[in-house]
Amino acid sequence: MTLEPADTGGVRSLDELYSAFDGLSIEGGWHRRSPALWPEPRRTLVPHGWRFADVRPILAAAGDLVDHEMADRRNVTLTNPVEGNIYPTVRTLVAAYQLIRPGEAAKAHRHTPSALRIILEGHGTYTVVQGTRVEMRPGDVLLTPSWLWHSHAHLETSDEDCYWVDVLDVPLVHLLETMFFERYPGDFETDVVEADEAPIAFRWEDSLRRLGAEQQQPEHGMAHREIQLGDPAMRTIALHVQEMPAGWTSARSRTTANSVFTVVEGSGRTEADGTVIEWERGDVVAVPSWRPYRHVASSDARLVRASDEPLMSALGLLRTERLEGTSAQIETGG
After folding, report:
1. Distance of alpha carbon 121 from its chain centroid, rounded?
2. Among 97-101, 118-122, 154-158, 247-251, where is mean pLDDT lowest?
3. What fold is seen in the domain 205-331?
4. What CATH topology corresponds to 48-203?
5. Cα gap 332→334, rounded to integer Å
6. Distance (Å, rounded) from C-alpha 52 to C-alpha 164?
7. pLDDT in tens, 157-181
8. Is the Cβ–Cβ distance between 172 and 234 less than 8 Å?
């Protein structure tokens, strides 16, 4: 059998070949402008911390200047400061501080991103999620799973401003291009059931009780005691409450999971990939994927860690390595 010579379209040199690539929006795998594979995760976003003491007066000023007609949710986004980044805190998650004042109410809406809030200050607030109304108290963690109606409000019976930290998987939804958002017809749900306990609410007193009953240090060594909220809390976000006594230093570790820590109690520092981040109550610390880090507690501390562990595990990409104390590698998922 005789093969006919292939039609080369008149291309006679590599320069002509690469010029033809450009015209067709294709690229040769042997001469990529930048590699598609690399030995380990690249350092893109950076470890960083935000001090509540710095943000709180800014939000208080916004409370005077920005009403709920201008912004239904009065919040400030914690954007990772690496050059070129315009939104995420870590690759798959975004965190924000939010303020609501007595008598204010944020109208109901729903969206495909999953969200949660960690209450820092204030009493007299509540959230309504898919018809269930739950009070929000300091230390509580409240969930807003994907595509459920939700609103929140502050009763006029209290004169305390309420501050909390939001964590959402919006950057992941942006990447997947699956963003949907809808406002509730009529502004607020009317068929509402009051509940003191609900699957969407993790009470701080319950977290403290569970921590007190926990006898073993977690294998990863990143906390003296640790509990998980939910199993996991949501499909894309895991929540762990970590406890560290004064003077305690964690193991040095790294994980492919992206992490956002909220300091609920105590003070200390996080040493992450050469960056030292001092923290105290209300502060937020971002540790991107595969950055070596450890915590050092100056006083008795409790942190809420939000991470994308469920996502990484479901994709078989969760890898955690303890860099001090053992050479063993812990791999989960697959």
Report:
1. 20
2. 154-158
3. Jelly Rolls (2.60.120)
4. Jelly Rolls (2.60.120)
5. 7
6. 10
7. 788 999 999 999 999 999 999 999 9
8. no
